Amino acid sequence: MWAMHTGTEQSDGQTPAQRLAHLVPIGVAAKRLQDGLTAFVDGLFEERFGLRRRHWQLLRWVHEHDEPALETFVAEAALFYTAEETRKVADDLLTRGWLGRRAGSGEAVLELTAEGERGFRAMAAAQDTTWQVVLQGQTEQDYVHAVHAMTVMADNLDRALTERETLR
Question: What's the domain of life for this entry (predicted)?
């Protein structure tokens, strides 16, 4: 194994791309993980609750925020879903009675209903199965390192893209 250096080449004269060429590209690994998570969680939640991962994501987001405005979630979820898809998920949960509109907020702020809170807790318990599967053969520290490394890489790319756009 090679030692960590701050430069792009080491004493062996190889670049990181050359030294790491035997590994699956990170984009391929990230895509497989994303697709696998969605398939696993969709199956888990469809079987038990008649819902999908995207419903869980909205419920969790509402649970975690003090002022969970739907349009804020629509913007944050845009990486994965169209605005129409995200609003459909909210409509599904509103129709099911798991979400409501906070009194005095008009259409803006969502809240978990009592039934939604029970459903959220049941889904959270089921989601523990996902964690058990994903972390098999891993430690929590491995997970923390993986998320940190991918976040740093994404931040580096965001910065480089911004700099490139600025230079144009």
Answer: Bacteria
